[in-house]
Structure formats: structure tokens, C-alpha cells
Amino acid sequence: MKKKERLILQRLRGLRASEEERLQIARSLAASPAERWARNQNFLRSLGSFRRLKARESDTW
Questions:
Q1: Which among 22, 26, 48, 50 is least buried, having the fewest CB atoms inside 10 angstroms?
Q2: Taking the mean position of all CA atoms in its chain, how far away is CA 18?
């Protein structure tokens, strides 16, 4: 666990949630924008709902 995650986890001790949920929240708050984006993509892939956007054939709407 990263140092920043540990600090955030300590602050979340009073939160009414399981230890697992607090750890997940701490990780998401400590993550950089790029890490959050990667987690989001992995989550969508695990649900089977992630599709890459296709390039438009024309520039007109």
C-alpha cells in the first residue's frame, strides 16, 4: 500500500463502511487522474460494456 493510501485510510476510520470499502475509497482518492482512468476502463471491460470509439467516416453531423 502506498503512503498516500495509508494516510487517507487512517482518515476514513470513522466512516461507516467495511474495511474493504474504506480501502477501495482510499485507493481511488489517492490515485492520479491517469490511474483513475485506467481503473475505470478496467472496470468497464470486466462488465463487458467497454468499447473503443470508432472514428467517424465523415466530419458532418
A1: 48
A2: 18
Determine the 3-state secondary structure of 46 from DSSP.
Answer: helix
Mean pLDDT by 10 residues, the chain (61 residues): 87 91 91 90 83 58 55
The pLDDT of residue 56 is: 54
- Burial state string for 3-15 with b = 16 or more CB within 10 A and e = fewer than 16: eebeebbeebeee
As a three-state string, the secondary structure of 28-44 is HHHCCHHHHHHHHHHHH
pTM over 0.70: no
Other CB atoms closer than 10 Å to residue 26's CB: what's the count?
A: 22
Question: Is the torsion defined by CA of 40, 45, 47, 48 positive or negative?
Answer: positive
